[in-house]
Amino acid sequence: MSTGISWFVIIGTLGSILGFFLLLFMNRKISRPGQTTGHSYDGIEEYDNPLPAWWYWAFILSMVFGLGYLAYYPGLGNFAGLSGWTQVKDLEEDRAAAAEKYGPIFAQYREVPIDELAKNPDVVKIGRRLFTTNCSVCHGATGQGSFGFPNLTDSEWMWGGSNEAIEETITNGRNGVMTPFGSILGEKGVSEAASYVMSLSGREVDPEEAAKGKVHFQTYCFVCHGMDAKGQAMFGAPNLTNEIWLYGNSRLRIEYTIKNGRNNQMPSFKDKLSADKIHILAAYVKSLGANK
Questions:
Q1: From residue 86, how far is each of 53, 55, 68, 81 by CA, in Å?
Q2: Given 21, 192, 196, 265, which is the most exposed site by the fewest CB atoms within 10 A?
Q3: Do 273 and 194 contact (CB within 8 A), yes or no?
Q4: C-alpha distances in angstroms, 220 versus 141, 178, 182, 193?
Q5: Cα gap 95→221, rounded to integer Å
Q6: 88-173+268-288 and 176-266 share one CATH topology?
Q7: What is the pLDDT of residues 245-256, one digit of tens each?
């Protein structure tokens, strides 16, 4: 945080503790012996006496503890604390301890082929837990994806469905970018290109408009999607001839994609998961679409 905010936190925190101490200190003695506060609660009056000694010292000890805690742990702005403790360091220590304890469980499957692991019920259970923790937030608990996030249970693999491709995707992530063509094609050209794309999967469109859209496709789109429009894994370009659509198959969605492009990124997990865990996770992902 900035220096100004840091000092604001420091002064506010220590000032509050000091204010509570002064309030407690100034009320430690009897100022009016035998007198009441002047208030009556259902006929009951309260004497104007200080706190009991045990209560007073309990407050003092809590303040001392608070000051000691703020000195040892980070809590005063940018002051790191005498212990040097950080959340990141604590997390790394926990991960290291977990890796030492559970590492052998994952390591025993290191040399086993993914296709074989995908048929092993025990490995699938381990992979499901890894998937739920790391992947379900985007791909869903069952791996069926959602808008903008691929379905892992079908036969469509934008970056390739080989064992090596799946491990590469999990390890290093993917960055799928489609160039926007709105400024190049204009509104009419976008509509024509959308008609052609829709016709590729057998949908009814204006034949004349689709023919014009084919020219646009063969001029700008074939480099990534291929002349047959069945996509190319090396570019992460999807197959446009089936009814599997990452961003929806309505004309409005298709035109939006052509006009504005798409930019989708899957994060890399190489710094979060060990190679053994990624191997098992890849086997689980492979098992999701095994029946396809």
A1: 38, 34, 17, 9
A2: 265
A3: no
A4: 37, 11, 12, 10
A5: 45
A6: yes
A7: 999 999 999 999
**pLDDT tens for each residue of 171-212:** 999 999 999 999 999 999 999 999 999 999 999 999 999 999
Could you tell me which residues come within 8 angstroms of residue 246 by beta carbon, excluding any fewer than 6 positions away?
A: 147, 148, 149, 150, 158, 238, 264
Closest CA to 215 of 236, 195, 235: 195
CB 76 within 8 A of CB 67: no
Helices and strands, counts by H and E, the chain? 12, 4
Domain-wise residue ranges, the chain: 3-72, 88-173+268-288, 176-266
DSSP string, 8-68: HHHHHHHHHHHHHHHHHHHTSS-SSTT-EEEEEETTEEEE--PPPHHHHHHHHHHHHHHHH
The domain defined by 88-173+268-288 carries CATH number 1.10.760.10: yes
Decide if domain 176-266 falls under CATH 1.10.760.10. Answer: yes
Rounded-to-integer distance, Cα 123 and Cα 284, Å? 8
